[in-house]
Every structure is written in structure tokens, then in C-alpha cells.
Amino acid sequence: MSTYDLQNKYPSVARSICLCLTLALCGLLPGCAMFGERTSNFAALKPPWSKKSVTDDPSIEDVRGPMQRVMQTALWNKKKDSTFFEPAVGAAEYKQANEKFKAKEYKAAEKEFKAIVKKYKNDPIKEDAQFMVAECQYEQKYYSWAQDSYDKLLIDFPSTRHLDQTTKRLFSIARYWLQEPSIVKGNDIQQVNLEDPGSETPEIPSDGKQRKSRWALLPNFFDRSRPVFDTENRALEALKSIWLHDPTGPLADDSLMLTASYYLKKGRYMDADRTFSLLREEYPKSPHLEDAFKLGTHVKLMSYQGPQYDATVLTDAGDLKATTMRLFPKAEQARLKEELKKIEHAKAKRDWETVQYWMRRSKPKSAAIYCNLLIENHPTSPFANQARELLSELGEENTNHLWANYATPKKMVQQQPEPKRSFMPGLPGFGKADPAPAKTRPTPPAKQELEPPARLKLDGFGDPIRKIPLEEESEPARIKL
Q1: Cα 480–chain centre separation
Q2: pTM of whole model > 0.70?
């Protein structure tokens, strides 16, 4: 079949072949880019599965503190602009490229800065040139390439002199890619429906901005300010790079809060819980701390799937709400107390579900044990009365092994006080033992006077002996028993 036949007789076939060739070329181009350098212009075309992110294996080598970075920057600027000492290596070329940058000739300046980076690999001028490459790409709105250049700068120079400006640029890029999201506040959310978990998701109030939904695998060929694939995850990668490379910076807690808010809006509650926990542990002085506590309990409860599943998230959420009430007394105490009551009700419902499980398995003695636990842990819940009625129905043959008898009718719960708990050694939490009666000491027997032993009598002496008799004296008296 000739080309003329394809173009004239079968135009649909020709269009289909051209479309297939175009799609194949679009698929090969990102695939080839995955083997190139991140600094190349094709780095932004890589698909999300191309290779591991460079921020996944961080290193603390050559990390310096904020004051050390300030002093190093001042010394470097003084040396670079000094006329008394020998100028820095590559300073003339850097100055020429910087003049083009100031004249807004960003493309030409980027080319010259790249040449400086390649030429002076082991000189201090490389750090400034690498930063200016990213700045040129940022000014041209090639944000995906700019992000790669900023990440390369942070990897090659962890304590770079341009750290503050780099984090600001990454934060602005992430907000642009996420279409300028707003941070969720703790008072904006609604209470989770614990009666029927998963039935509905509480609505988060909208900020009024119109945002376009984007598919991760849908390629972008027209907007040069966005990556070709997966714009939102690239934005999260930029936020991660901020708090990972500059954890003490002013934007570290903001980047964490923005990431957690994004996860919350997208329904990724496990990721949001992990991010809120990191914010609470690492940044206790952050202005987002109160919201991190309130939203942390919300995402934990949203992860709860019902009484048939694990109740660890209920316990953690209850402890977190109790901590919130202690740390922030100005918070809505009435709302927090009401939410705590709902959490306790959900725990009691789960215990009652366990009782019903053992009854379905025809294990009345096991059900009786969990009835006692339910009454012990949640005595005022409505499920406690049902547990009392079940204990009374099970009879003595199924409850004689219990540590306490809670088989009380429902109508007598308000009138009859709770029976005393018996003490079982080795089982903590089952009550306290009754005080033992004080032991009385037996009266000791009266002391009997002993008779003095027989004493020796000296014949002829009534008084005690005062001297030893001499030889010329008479024979001394003899001892008689």
C-alpha cells in the first residue's frame, strides 16, 4: 500500500497510525529520561515510577548550624568582593553570568551558570553557581527542573549558604502545584460518626477556591510550570525536602502542617496521622500545635472501622483528647468532653460485641468473663445493664468462676450499690481487698523471780576479804560448800 493510498483512500487508517506513533514517542521520551541526570532538561519528563527520589536517603554529613552558615556566608561574600586578596576561582565568570541574570536574560544566564558548575567541580564557586541555575529555572517558571536543581544543591551542600532562600522557593513551588491549599483548622472539622463508622465522611469547609482535579498518570504536555506526571506527589516531595534538610528552619512546621492537611482532605488518614504525630513530637512550640492535637484525634477516629475490629485507635484518640484538654484549657472543653463520652460509648459497644461473639460460639463462661469486664470498665454505659441481665440469665453454673457477682437486674441498678469487689492476688485491676483486722499481741506472761544461787561461805569471815594473809599468820579458813 502506497503513501498516496493511505492519505486519500484510507484517511482514518493514516490518522490512526500517526496517533500511535505519537503516543509511542511520548512513552519513550520519559522512559529514556529516567536514565539521565536530574539536571538535564528531560528530568521533568520522568514518570513517577522511574527511580527512587533523592530525598529518600538523606545524610547528615557536612551539616552546619544556622550561626555557622551565617558566618560562612559573610566570609565568602567578603572574599568574593575583596580587592586586597586574590579573587575567588571563577569569580569573573560568575560575575558575568550574574549580570545577565540581573538583566533578566535567564536562559543565557542558566547556560553560563551550568558551565561554571561543570568547570569548577571542586571549588567553592560551584555552590553559588548551582543555586543560580535553580534560580534561573525558577524565574523561567520551569518549576519541575528548578525543584530538581534545588534538591541537588541540598544534597551536594547540606548546609548551603542559600538554605533559607531554597526552602522558600520549594515551599512556593509546592503551594503552586497544590493550587494554593489552605491549612485545615481544628475547629473546622465535624465529629466522626462512631455509631456507624465509615458510613459518611465529615465535610471539611471549603475555602472558596476552584481547583482542577488531576490524574497522576495523565501526562502534561502543555503547561511547562508543572511536571509531566504526578504533580501533587511532586509537591509533597518538595515539602518533605524542606523539613528534612532544614528541620530548624521557619518553614519546617508549616510544610508538615500543609502536608497533613492535604492528606486529610484526600482521605489518607493513616498518612495524616503519621504527619500530625511528627509535628506534635518534633515541634512543641509550633503555632500549629493545638490544631495538630485536635486533628490528630480526628484522623485516628476516621481510621476506626467498627466494633468488629481493633480498638487501639479508640484508646489512642481518647488519650490524645484528654491530653488536649490538659494542655489547652481555653479550647472547647464541652465539645471535647462530649467527644470523650462518645469514645467511651464506642469502647463499651465493642466489648458488648465481644460478649455476643462468645455467646454465638456457645461459650457462656467466656461471655460471663467479658460481661464482668464490661461492667468493670464501663459501669454507667447502657451496655452494662445488658451485661448484668445476661449474667443473671446464665445462672450460677456459668458464673461461679467470676471474681465478683454483677448479676443485678436492670431496675435495681440505680438503687442497689455496686457489690464489693474481692481481691485476687496476681490479677491487677480487679479491686482492693477489705482491710484486715488489726492483730492483737498476746500479753506476755508475768516474770518469775529466780532464786539466787547458793553462795560460798567462808569460815571465820563475816566481812569481805580485804587483804591476803601473810606466812606468819594463821592458816586461812577453808572453803565449805
Answers
A1: 100
A2: no
